Amino acid sequence: MAKRARKDGSSLISTNSKQKAVKRTRKGKNVGKLAMLLKMPMDILFEILAHLRPLDLLHVARTSKELRRILLAPSSTSVWKDSLSADLDLPECPPDLSYPGWAHLVYDPFCHMCSDSRVKNPDWKLRVRLCALCSKRGLSACQPWSVYFRDLPIQELLPHHDVKDNRSIYVKADIDKMVKTWKSIKDTAARWQFSEERRDIVERIDEHASRCEAWARKKALDKIAYQDTVRLARRTSIIQKLKDAGYTADIESMTEDDWASFDRLRPVAQKRALTDQAWKNMKENVVEFIMSCRDKQPADAN
Ligand SMILES: [Zn+2]
């Protein structure tokens, strides 16, 4: 079977997103600081870079031509590997993608075509992350017997999603490239061998995509569980602060409805740890709410 070459990743870090990232970085006034990296000995630079998260590495690669050249060179493979390995359950980088390309697919939250819209999840099978608008431009729903394909067994050659009316969704650019490749193979036996190889590749992509989907689902669930834990800890801290401020009796006499309203208060519902400053900012509002609950209590019968 023909061994597939890894893409070097440069095409996966588009100029458009590169420019946007530079703009974003400039806003963060980091460009000068990042330029300092280039003055370091390479081994120290690699040591530092290997500790960055993959998304930070992508941002660094987009800040200057030199850093981009360094980070996309094969000698930086270990940097990407170390960075990606911090995400313990992440499936391995597929053999036909570069490590930067893989990091781009997994972690860069912006649409691969327009770089404007955030897109929650990539399409693991088609290996693109596209917003709704760019999906219309970048993807194509075709029937396998389309005149364009002639004798090309497109469903065997490219990863796709089957949809209704016997159509399947493909990346348009992948179709164009595949049609060209297919036309360039004239010999029937060679075409047969090529189809066999591609069928294996597509199977492996499908299997890898399933594992990626499971990983992304678990990650999303873990995030929700973590945020719930943080929110509950914040709620507990706020209640303790109120008790410390002398509102224990009011808290203990709150009804279920009062608690439901309390939990919906914006400063209470946030999924962030409580800080002293946050407590200072919210105290007046939260105490006001507690007092409103007190006002609703029936007067003591004497
Ligand atoms: Zn887009």
From TrEMBL:
Transmembrane segments: none annotated. Residues 34-83 form the F-box domain. SMART domains: FBOX. It comes from the Eukaryota. Gene3D superfamilies: 1.20.1280.50. Residues 1-27 are annotated as: Disordered. SUPFAM superfamilies: F-box domain. It holds the Pfam family F-box. Signal peptide: none annotated. This is F-box domain-containing protein.
